[in-house]
Amino acid sequence: MTKSLFPGFDGLMSLSRREGVDVRPTLLRVLTDLYVQTRIHSDDEQRQFTELATRLIDQVDDATRAAIKAKLAIYPQTPVPVLQKLGLVAAQEGRRVPLAREIPTPAPAPAPVRTPSDAELRMASNMAMQPKDAAEIHDMFFRAGASERALILHNLAQTPLKAAPRIPTVRTKRAIQILEMAAIAGDAENFTLELGDSLILPSRVAAQIVDDAGGEALAVAARAIDMPSPNFQRILLFFKPAIGTSVNEVYRLSRLYDRLSDRSALVMLAAWRGSTLAVTRAKYQPSLHDGERQRARAGASQTRPGVQPGAMPPRRTGTDGSSER
Prior knowledge:
mainly alpha, two-stranded antiparallel ribbon, 63% helix
């Protein structure tokens, strides 16, 4: 089970001890989710899960341990050593494992009042991004390599360009749940639809973000909806197998994500939205230009009437010099 999904598991563990990004909570959650999705396991799968889970349980935070404890407590095929490691009583034959008690959630502390930072003041700037500039930023980002993209995102935090408004919290919570479920199921279509809806992006741009091989565009999109780092790591492991099976890629994108500022992500989101307007204008500009030329030619070809409205008709003079009416 773990060999096919995580061939670099030992490498991730060793690198996790050396680097600043700790993916062990994410790995334990992913292992547990994979294990409980199937009701029947081979002896080799049970042995591997027992070995890996018991190693990680003592190395993760209390919240992660409580989350997997709640899942494994009601799963009938949880190995006994894992139950013992979690402090659960193994069920006797014919009895279910008792449900773990609910862990009370502490009330959130009130946010302290603080002075807005320089970046937050820059976010309030009224320097709106023009569609042409947005299209240039969009194209430059997707043409750049990994190191150049990181530099672009770093520089966006210092620009006076107006960032896109934050996505409402209620919307982001729903989007994070749907995106993670779609990633676990490998459902690229619904993942792309939800990403486009939550970020108010056209399907073309949403698909470009999802299909981007480097993963930086997906990191920007996840930061724009304020996705927690563990959720983003799980999406990498499930939805991007080319990245999830590479130790270096997982840590590179995890470090990028943890260092990526909200402002950089929201400015890039504004560029993605503005680039759509630039493409639309470029698409219809030739037809609009041709229409103006045709109207100009039609106006020039019209003959001016000899008698203007409201003018007196000319007098006709007879042969004897008298005027005729």
